[in-house]
From TrEMBL:
PROSITE patterns reported for this sequence: ABC_TRANSPORTER_1, ABC_TRANSPORTER_2
Gene3D superfamilies, alphabetized: P-loop containing nucleotide triphosphate hydrolases
CDD domains in the record: ABC_Carb_Monos_I, ABC_Carb_Monos_II
Endpoints of the signal sequence: none
GO terms assigned for molecular function: ATP binding; ATP hydrolysis activity
Keyword set includes Flavoprotein: no
Protein name: Ribose transport system ATP-binding protein
Species name: Murimonas intestini
Keyword Translocase: yes
Pfam families: ABC_tran
Amino acid sequence: MEKEVILKCTKMCKSFGPTKALVDVDLVVNRGEIRGLIGENGSGKSTISSIVAGVLPYDSGNIEFLGKPHKPADMLEAQQAGISMVVQEAGTIQNLTVMANIFVGKEERFSRGLFLDKKAMKKEAQQILDEIGASHIRADDSIMRYNFEDRKLVEIARALYEKPELLIVDETTTALPHKGREVLYRLMKKQAKENRAVLFISHDMDELMDNCNAITVLRDGRLIATLNEDEMSIPKMRSLMIGREISDEYYRTDLDGSFGEEVVLKAEHLSAGEILEDFSFELHRGEILGIGGLSDCGMHDLGKAVYGAVKLLTGKVIYKDGTEIKSPAAAVSKKMGYVSKNRDIESLILSSSITSNVALPSLNKLQKGVYLSAKDEEALTNEQIKEMSIKCENGAQTVDNLSGGNKQKVVFGKWIGNKAEILILDCPTRGIDIGTKVAMYKLMYRLKQEGRSIIMISEEIPELIGMSDRIIVIRDGKLSGILERSDTLNEHSVIECML
Ligand SMILES: Nc1ncnc2c1ncn2[C@@H]1O[C@H](COP(=O)(O)OP(=O)(O)OP(=O)(O)O)[C@@H](O)[C@H]1O
């Protein structure tokens, strides 16, 4: 049977100044399909989704949606045409309630004369939250009460409320806890089963294989291939993305989980956030200490607590020289670095340049008398652009303009540039393409060998097993087990500890 086309892009082009983000892209998405869109960081995936969803205009080419010309002036217009999108980073508005976030721009639907029928709004918002399996989120609560993961679920509710013909999911899964990912997969499958369509952007090869009916590969803004279900395989997808074969070995290959005796950081009886309670551990010189658990087990709070970024309810964090780490400033002065899971809000100054972001923790080092050495700042940044393969015009480009994965590389680069001795990495490879991931793991291993210490908080069990010397598993805010690196350690043993 002939497939019914829902979206047809022909020779779509988009440039940002000298950067050719999309070059003559022809993309056809059919009804009933979950289409994966893959490519390295900066290959143009989000540019396509932003154009189709009305966030960005295109320069030339042609788009048809449901057989009609499609050139939406904004997101609302694209939504009215039948396209909704859930994005990578925070897409909710602070200071509003959950329901106001769900119905933003559509409030008139509930207006009764001069007033807003908040009761009806609440009822409808709660209904959609319940429908997507997020009943724990209350429609009339302030959005600020909810964490990053729950806010993503609110965005999903907002996107699905309209029953869009095309749902775009732009790297949302890594922001969600495991349960939330399952919810999203189920909703995507439902969308396809109802003969609508999904455009699904992800770097996770397994979830792409499990959920997509076809995969489109981009490289440097050009469409390289579209693989149908029977042609899809991980090695093929990887090599089409990167343009060369890459090995299956992502992680360090040694089984030696040894590290120095010296304790460089000690956490004693920490309680913080809503769940973390009476938690203690020691980090050693040259150790990669993995921290795992379900997303809401308290591990993200632990990262913040160790960096002095949240108020401790009990306990203390002590650096090797006896200094108590009570603030990020104290942490930075002891050469500690922190990569937050909530990258755009907590780890970057989006409106500043790559150089300003990279140089920020190294300002003391870069200061010459009362002046900052612009030349040194630039050299430091260029080194990190090279080391982390940051795709950008130059260090003067504002971080806001970088692709998601390249922003993550900037965060990593700023702490590597600062020669941090202790790195607290919360989901460090989030949004990072497979080629760069391999490079990052190599870098982490090199840092370990140089005697630096890493706390790696991760929701990816293979990453924890693949990189850690020891894995501390947290369950419901408390220590549930410590697992040592060995050839018998497997996903099952970690999961057993987590649940
Ligand atoms: N507003 C902007 N201004 C300047 N350059 C931009 C802008 N938005 C995107 N770019 C550039 O366009 C290119 C494509 O970016 P895009 O965000 O589409 O990549 P991506 O494939 O989604 O990457 P990632 O996997 O890292 O999310 C990148 O080089 C990026 O730096």
